[in-house]
Amino acid sequence: MPECDIHVWLLHLDQAWASPDQLSPDEQARARRYRCRHARHSFVQTRAALRQVLGHCLGLPPLAIGLEEGHHGKPRLAASLPCLEFNVSHSGQLALIALGRTPLGIDLEHLDRPLDWRELAPACCHPDELPALRRMPDPDGHRQFLRLWTLREAYVKGTGEGLSQSPADIRLEYGDAAWRVAGDAGWHLHALTLPGGYVGSLAATMKNPVVRLKALTATPW
User: Fold this and answer.
1) pLDDT for the residue 220
2) Closest by CA position to 15, among listed 41, 50, 36, 37
3) Which member of 133, 142, 155, 178 lies 3.0 to 4.6 Å from 203 by CB, making a disulfide possible if both were Cys?
4) Which residues of 184-197 are buried (b: 16+ CB within 10 A; e: fewer)?
5) Mean pLDDT per 10-residue run, the chain (221 residues)?
6) What is the distance between the alpha carbons of residues 163 and 59, in angstroms, rounded to a whole number?
7) Is 133 exposed, middle or buried (0-12, 13-18, 19+ CB in 10 A)?
């Protein structure tokens, strides 16, 4: 994979192809702990797909890929493996797997997800963003809220800070056709163009990566 490339794999969860035996014993145990059938299905499909993609990139069998938890529980490759960054997100019937040579984070939301964005906005958005957001009609405001949400989530997943940082403390700026985090010039945000019904965002420490969207099937290679 070229240094400037970030590959984003799209996995349609309703086109199931993976089974629990494609996961490690620890992952199989984790899957069994999900009480919600959809959540369990999403985890199995996404983790098996992640192993498949990593195995292809590293030239290893999928089950030979060692995964461990890093800063604030962010998954990463075992230290014995080559340096390759990855991040995963899923919502509805779609999952995204991002891979690159630079620290990164990715997030995805389904537009049909039921939520009261006007009520959630004060806790999830920076105060400077609220006036313009509240002036938007519901369909546009809902989409913009999810755009801002996925940009923030991609950023905190990339840094590994997760829930340790309040979303409302992160101020986003838009200019020169690009998103960025105020006060953090080391990270760059990218709004992804996804299939209808979904909003997704990518955060990376690379300013102008070549983002390549790819569909993942049972036999992608």
Assistant:
1) 60
2) 41
3) 155
4) eeebbbbbbebeee
5) 90 87 95 94 95 94 92 85 94 96 96 92 96 94 96 94 83 90 94 93 93 80 56
6) 34
7) middle
Residue 35 to residues 2, 27, 31, 41, Cα–Cα distance (Å): 40, 15, 9, 11
Q: What's the confidence (pLDDT) of residue 221?
A: 56
Task: Extract the tokens encoding 179.
Answer: 């998103």
Residue type at 38 in one-letter notation: H
- Sign of the dihedral through C-alpha 47, 49, 51, 53: negative
Rg (CA), the chain: 17
C-alpha–C-alpha distance, residues 31 and 39, integer Å: 9
Count CB-CB contacts under 10 A for residue 199.
24
10: nearest Cα among 65, 44, 49, 42: 49
pTM strictly above 0.70: yes
Crossing angle of the two packed helices 117-124 and 138-159, in degrees rounded to 10: 30
Q: Residue 221's closest CA among 53, 44, 88?
A: 53
